[in-house]
Amino acid sequence: MEKKTFVTLVMSVVGGMLFAMGMCMCLLPEWEMFYQGVVLAAVGLVELLITALVYCKKSGIKIKVNAKLVGKVFYGIFAACVFGAGMSMTMAFEGMMLPGIIVGIVGIVLLLFLIPMCVGLKDSSKKSN
């Protein structure tokens, strides 16, 4: 395993754990730690952003910022928020289980649309000679 891969792995785990713990603190009313959870989740997101930037720098990946990239990022944020809203509805609000599941499924579908947006679709029916 290369050093950059290991560093990325460790930083991703730390950022993911901070974000996940912050989300648990936000979504579990029994803990009564909503605002602390928001801060911890934000710290986790910043850590994950730093991880992505460090990996790109170490790998020599150049990111060209254009309108398409910005649109994809905002679409991804919107889709993740819809998915998160569905999770929140099912976990934190009484009587919102079924609507929360429906909103969560819509969020999953929106996130799935990111794959063809970012990678693209290829026609596999054309045979190469």
Helix fraction?
A: over 70%
Low-confidence stretches: none
* Alpha carbon gyration radius: 18 Å
| Classification by helices and strands | mainly alpha
Strand content: under 5%
Count of DSSP strands:
0
Largest sheet: none
What is the residue-averaged pLDDT? 90
List the domain count as a whole number.
Answer: 2
Helix and strand string, N-terminal first?
HHHHH
Choose one word for the global shape.
flat
Question: Gap between N and C termini, in Å?
Answer: 38 Å
- The number of helical runs is 5
SSE layout and pairing:
Elements: H1 3-27, H2 34-59, H3 67-92, H4 97-112, H5 114-118
Question: What does this molecule look like?
Answer:
- The protein folds into two domains: 1-62; 64-119.
- The chain has five helices and no strands.
- α1 packs antiparallel against α2 (34-59) and α3 runs antiparallel to α4.
- 76% of the residues lie in helices and 0% in strands.
- The radius of gyration is 18 Å and the shape is flat.
Gist?
This protein has 129 residues and is an all-alpha fold. Helices cover 76% and strands 0% of the residues.
